[in-house]
Amino acid sequence: MQIKKACGLKRIFKHVEVNGVPRKALIDTGSNLNLIRSDEYFRRGAPKVNSNKTTLSDLGGAEVLTLGSIKVEMDIDNHKYTAVVHIVPEQAMEMKFLL
């Protein structure tokens, strides 16, 4: 699975805080999951991971196995949320964080 291009559509990015750390996230209103690239996960201190792995597939049918998931506290526009974020291999997507 490779999330690279949005068919010429403008991508929507948002500055958010995840566990108190500022991040720039791609907002994907069609996604059912929150994703973080593995390199970004490790760069941010690698919080304890839930070892439940999930197989994801894209519209073309390509599949990627997540490395697990983490529960995070997010602050978006001064609204606080608890969310599950799935960790994907670095090569699985271009952006670092997808909401």
Count of strand segments:
8
Helix and strand sequence: EEEHEEEEE
Radius of gyration: 13 Å
What is the average per-residue confidence, as pLDDT, rounded to a whole number? Answer: 85
- Low-pLDDT runs of 5+ residues are none
Fraction of residues in β-strands: over 45%
The secondary-structure class comes to mainly beta
C-alpha geometry: globular
Q: How far apart, in Å, are the first and last alpha carbons?
A: 17 Å
- Could you give the order of strands across the largest sheet? 2-1-6-7-3-8
Summed up, the helix count is 1
Major beta sheet summary: 6 strands, mixed
Query: Share of helix among residues?
Result: under 10%
Describe the structure.
The two termini are 17 Å apart. The protein is mainly beta and 99 residues long. The model has no long low-confidence stretch (mean pLDDT 85). It contains 1 helix and 8 strands. It has a domain at 32-98. It has a 6-stranded mixed beta sheet with strand order 2-1-6-7-3-8. A two-stranded antiparallel sheet has the order 4-5. A hairpin with a 2-residue loop joins β6 (68-76) and β7.
